[in-house]
Amino acid sequence: MKPVVFYIDNNEIQFTVNLMGLETLKVNGTQISKKWSLPNRKHKFTLDAYGKTEHFYIKTKQAFSTGNITVQMFHNDVLIDEDVVAFDLIITNNLKDKSDNGMFSTGLIFVIFGLIFDWSKLFLFIGLIFLFSSFTGNSCETETPKDSKKSD
User: Fold this and answer.
1) Contact 69, 62 (CB under 8 A)
2) pLDDT digits (tens, 9 = 90+) for 97-108
3) What is the pLDDT of residue 94?
4) Are 81 and 104 members of one domain?
5) Burial 64-85 (b: 16+ CB within 10 A, else e)
6) Domain match, 13 and 49 both
7) What is the CA radius of gyration of the chain?
């Protein structure tokens, strides 16, 4: 995944998350926090910025409908910046054209959470529906050939 990077007064704050849901926060290359993704997770840290020590935190929110994670940077409980980590999983070039990657990501998340956290079988079933729908290409639009001639 591509990291989310924020810059505060010559400090680089880098946030990454892997496919297993492990979030890592680094400030100027030094790891500050490492936590598993959960709804509304906070990573608190302090920086020498603006001539004094300031308190910041990064809050993450996951959208299960798209599989994306919104990363928000706060200073003194005021939102100062935000970015999105997109989980666009591509299996092969063939499937890229035929599947809806958002449906695949959502299905994968439901299946993983259903198995790991022992959620109800309903979540597992919903995840499988999303996964199979992404492979069948139900959401793809069809194009008409450019060279087709209309019959009179």
Assistant:
1) yes
2) 444 567 777 777
3) 42
4) no
5) eebbbbebbbbbeeeeeeeeeb
6) yes
7) 20
